């Protein structure tokens, strides 16, 4: 059961992330976000977002411990998760 692929909304993105070396769990979290697979480059910088916006993004990608994080910690967690 541990070798099963988690349920994902965007399988193409999931596979691309797995090919880059991401774990199954992290790949599934990213591929299941509402905006998965959309081309980037136009997103507002994390530093320009409110703590509430960062918290919501952290919630979308299921970062644990987010409720106790500072804005700086949320940014770091989002970048490294």
Write the layout of secondary structure elements.
Elements: H1 11-19, H2 24-31, H3 51-60, H4 71-80
Write structural notes for this entry.
The protein has 81 residues and is mainly alpha-helical. It has one domain (11-37, 45-80). 46% of the residues lie in helices and 0% in strands. The chain contains four helices and no strands. Helix 3 (51-60) runs parallel beside helix 4. It is globular, with a radius of gyration of 13 Å. The two termini are 24 Å apart. The relative contact order is 0.14. The mean pLDDT is 82.
Using brief descriptors, characterize the structure shown.
0% strand; mainly alpha; globular; 46% helix; 4 helices; 81 residues; single chain
Task: Give the gist of this structure.
By secondary structure, this protein is mostly helical.
Number of strands: 0
What's the helical proportion of residues?
Answer: 40-55%
Whole-number mean pLDDT = 82
The radius of gyration over CA amounts to 13 Å
Structural class: mainly alpha
* Morphology call: globular
Uncertain spans: none
> How many helices in DSSP terms?
4
Give the number of domains.
Answer: 1
User: N-to-C terminal Cα separation, in Å?
Assistant: 24 Å
